[in-house]
Amino acid sequence: MQESNCRERRLALQDALEAVGGKWRVFILCAMLEESRRFSDLEAHLEGIRPKVLASELKVLEEHLLVTRQVNDTRPVTVTYSLTPHARHIWPLVNALVGFGLEHRRFVKAGMKAAIPA
Predict the structure, then answer these.
(1) For residue 108, what are the β-bridge partners?
(2) Which CATH number do you get for residue 41?
């Protein structure tokens, strides 16, 4: 029974990491938290991301139903990306990771100071 529960948890975690894992996906989602964004806006907001990588990551986020892509009837044509209602379920997790990151940074910094002889 316990092994089955462990397997289910592992599979659920695997699904979650497949959807939002990687170097850029959480940052892309965070960039759209307050508003929809055009591709060029995302590119400017995510310093260091290459256009090809951004396009690929947006496609994965679309496949996982976390982002919608809307082609606007403008000249020139523009594309707007938005979070889906489903994507908003990850914010408690993101906030928890931010908290962990802040605490971890303090912990490591304190540990490094303790490890350096006076």
Answers:
(1) none
(2) 1.10.10.10
